[in-house]
Amino acid sequence: MRKIFVVLSLLLLLSLAAFSQLPPGIPRNETLILDQIFRYSIPHNFNVWTPVGITPTRQAFVFDTLWYIDQHTGEWINSLAAEPPKYNDDFTQMIVKLREGIYWSDGVEFTADDLIFTVEYLKAHEGLVWNADFNAYVDKVEKLDKYTVKFTLKEPYPRFHNLFTARYNACYIMPKHVWEKVEDPGSFDFFPPVSLGAYVYKDSDPSGYWELFERREDWQRTSVGVITGKPGPKYILTIFYGPSEKKVMAMLSNELDVLMDLDLEAFKALIRRGKYVRSWYKDFPWAYPDEIDMRNLSFNLEKYPFNIKDVRWALALALNIIELEENYVGGISRVNPIPHPATTYHMKYFHIPLKPWLEQLEIEVTPGEKFKPFDSNIPFELAKWARKQGYKVPDDPDKVIEMFGIGWWKYAPDVATKLLEKHGFKKENGKWLLPDGTPWKFSIIVAPDEEDAFRQTMWAVDQWKKFGIDVSMITLERNPFYAKNQTGDFECTTAWGVGGSPSASLDKWPYINGYHSRFYKPTGETQTLQNIIRLKDPEVDRIIDEMGAISPDDPKSYELTKDWIKLWTENMWTIVLTSFKKMITYNEYYWTNYPTAENPYGQPLYWFMGSRFVIPHFEKTGRK
Amino acid sequence: MNLLKSYIFPRLVQWVIVILIGTTVTFIIPRFSPVNPVDVVMASLASYQTTDPQAMLKLKESLEDMMGLNENIFVQYFKFWGRLLKGDLGPSLARFPIPVIRVIGNAMPWTISLLLIATILGWLLGMVLGTFAAYYSHKSWSKILQVVIMALYPVPYYVMALILLMIFAYIFPIFPLFGGVGIGLKPSLSLNFILSVIKHGFLPAVSIILVSIGWRFMSQRALTSTLLSSDFIVYARIAGVRNRKILFYLFRNSLLPQATDLALSLGGIFSGALITEVVFSYPGLGQILYSAILQGDYNLVIGISVFSIIGVATGALIIDLLYPFLDPRIRYS
Lengths: 624, 333
Prior knowledge:
The complex is a heterodimer. Chain A is built from 19 helices and 27 strands. By secondary structure, chain A is α+β, with helices and mostly antiparallel strands. Chain A has a domain at 289-580: Dipeptide-binding Protein, domain 3. In chain A, helix 3 (112-124) packs across helix 4. The longest helix of chain A is centred in the middle third of the chain and has 17 residues, at 344-360. Chain A is globular. Chain B has a domain at 111-295: MetI-like (MetI-like fold), CATH 1.10.3720. Chain B contains 15 helices and no strands. Chain B has helices at 2-28, 37-48, 53-67, 73-84, 100-135, 140-152, 157-171, 191-228, 231-238, 243-253, 255-268, 274-280, 285-295, 298-326, 328-332. In chain B, helix 1 runs antiparallel to helix 14 (298-326), helix 5 packs parallel to helix 14 (298-326) and helix 7 (157-171) packs parallel to helix 12.
C-alpha cells in the first residue's frame, strides 16, 4: 500500500514538472491566446441562428456575412459581397454581387445558392433569429447568376442590407449543403461547424472554459484571406480565466496574449510587472476610448419627479464631472454631454460640429432668467490635472479635446437649487424635500460587473447626497438588472445604449427606431426594445418617421440625427456622462502588431465580428 | 420486524414526502422570480444586434410558445411531473433546446468527484485531528495545531483560494490556473488523464478542506474534551487501557453528531461549490445553478434542485437508518 502511494506521488510530481497549458503539438508561439469573455454555457452549439446560440469571439472565426463596418475606422468592408448593395430608386429591390472563389471549409464553393437558401430557410422556420425580419421585408429572393442575388422587398426599405452588415452580429450565411438536410433547426447544434471563416473548430472544453481553433489550410479562399492577404496565427485559443486577478496572473505568466478589460488599478499593477504589457495607448490614458456606446444615468420618465425637465436638468447641474474623472475613474474616459458615442469617428461628425450649439444652449432657470449650462473648459481643466499627476498631455487644444472630450455641464448647484424651487421643492437642514414635504429619496440600479458604470454610480450617489438628496445604489446581477430595466422598475438606471448607440456609420435610425411611440410600453410591461426610459414624444416620432423614409446616405438623414441629439439634450432625457472605454490589454511577448493608438489600422475589440480582419495582422515575435 | 415497522418504514414515508414537497416548492418558487427567461434571451439578443422592433416582438411570442411558458401553471406542473417520472427534466430555457439532463450530466461528475473527496477528507481530518488535539491537549504540538487551525478558520474562503492560486499557480507555477483537466485531454482511464484531473482538482480540494476543517476540528475537540471526563474513559485510563484503544472509544462515541453532519454535507454537494468553481474556473454545478437562477431558467433550477433535494433527503435517511447500528440505545429502545 505504502509503495503504491509512493509511486502515485512520484507520478504526480513528474506530471507537475512537465506542466504545460497547451496540448502536445500546439506550439505556444503559433497560438494566440485570447481572454474568453465568459464561460460558454453551450460549448458544442454552433447554431448561431437560434436566439440562444449567439456567442461572441468564436463567430468571427467560423462565420461570415456580406458586409462589415470597422467600428474604429468606419471603413466599409465588402466581405462575402464583392461590392456594396445596389437598390432600385424606390428601395424595393436590392441586388447583391457576391465574391467569387470563396469556399466552405469542407471544400464546397460558396455561391448565391447559399445566400438564397439562408434567407428562405430562416423565413420558413419560426423561432429562429431573422425569421420575423425576413418575413416582414422579403417578398422573394432569386438568383440572377451563380454570384448575383436579387431581393424583392415587400415595402421600400433603404436599410435592408443592415441585416447582413455586422458589428457584433448579423445574419450569417448557412452552408446549404449541410442545412438542407436539417429538419429541426431548433435542436440542431451545427457541430462541428463547416466554416466560412479563416479558422476551423479544433477542440473545446465541454465545460465551456476554453475553445481552440486552427487556421484553415485554404485560408486564402476565405473573405478574410482575400481582404487581408495575411494568414494570421495558426491557432487561436480562447480561455475563460474567471476573476481579473487570475487574468493578471495569466498575462504575467505569458499564458494570455489579449485581455478584454481590466479596472485601472489592476491594469496599473499589471504594467508595473509586465515588461511586454500595454493597452491601446502606450501611456496615459492607456485605455481604448472608442467602443461605440455611452455611459448614462437614465430616468424612468413616467416616475415623478423625473418626468419634469427642470428636475432632470437640476440633477445634471448638481454633478461635478471633474470629480468623477479625477477621483473615481482616473481621468481615462472622455466626457460626453450628448446622446451619441464620443468616439474618435463620431466626434468628428457630431460632437465637434455641435459644440457651438452646445455653447449657445440656454435653459430657463426662473421666468426670464436664462442660463448657459455648457462648459467647454472642462477638458482643459482635466489636462491640467493630468499634467499634475505626471502624465504626458499634449498642448494642442484639439488633441486635448480628443483625449478628454468636448466638455460637459457646469457644476452649478445654485442653478439646480433654483430649478427645483421653481417646482415647489424645499431644502431644510441641508436635505431636499418634495413639494408635499416628504424627503426626496431615490435609488440608482447598477450591474457591478460593469466597472465604469459602478464607479460612476458611486460618484453620482456621493454628489447628489452632497447636494442634499437621499440617493442610494442598488447593485444587481446582469439578468435582474436587465429585468428591472425592461419593466421600468427603476427611478434611475445605468443601462447602456440609451439614446441610440450606432455602429461606426452616420445612420442612427436603426438604433432609435424603438423609441417610436408605436413601440411604447408603460411601466410594468416588459419593454424588450430600446425605450426602457418610457419616452413618448411626438417630435421623437417625427424624426424617426422622416429618417426611416429616406436613404441612410441622404444628407438629410445626418441633419435629422443632429436634430435628435439636440432634442434629447435640451430635454435632458438622460444624463450622458462619458465614453465607453475598454482597457484592452496586450501582451507582446509572443505576438505584436496589435492595433494601437500609434498604429490604428482597425478595431481592437476582438470579441466583435470585425476582429476577423484584424487578427491576421498580428505578427509573431519569434520568442519560443 | 418491530424495528422495520416502528423505525424504518416511517422514515421511508418521510423521505418520499420530503422529496414531493421539496420538488413542488422548487417548481413554484422560481416562477415568482421577476426574471422571465424569454426576456433574458431577448435582452441578450438586443445587446448583440439591431433588429427591427416589430420582428423582436414576433420572435418573443414564438419563443414563449416554443418554451411552453404561455401555458397555465397547473398544466405546466402536471406536465413537469409526467416528464420527471420518465427521467426527463425538460429543456433548459436559457440554453434552449438543450435538455436539462445533459447540462447537469456534463457538470455533475466534476462536482461529485471534487466535493465528495474534499468533504470526506475534510471530515476525517477534522475528526482525527480534533480527537488527538483534545486527548493530547497538554502537548506542545497540539497547542500549535490548534493555533494554526484557529488562524485558518476565519480566513474568508475567497481569500484562501486566491492565496493558494497565487502561491502554487503563479509564484511556483506547479498547478494550473483554471479548468478541471488539461486542454485537449479527453475523458479516459489513461494515467495521463487521471493525473491531469488530480492536478487540476488538487488546489480546489485543498482550499475546501482547509476552510472546512476548522469547524469540524473545534467541534470534535469540544466533544472529545467532554468525553474525556466520562466515567468509561476515566475507568479505561485507570485500568491501563492503551492510548490507541482509548482514542478509538473517543472517536466512536463522538461519531453520532458528526456522522449526521457528514451525511447532510454529502447530500448538499449536489448544489455545487460556487465560489470554488469561480476562483479556480473549475467545472461543476454551482455556477450553472447560479446562472440558471439569474436567467430565470426554471427547468434547470428545478433539475439541479431535485438532485439536491434527493441527495439531502437520502443522506438524512441513510444516517437515520444507520443510527441503530451506531447507537445501541436506539436498537434497544
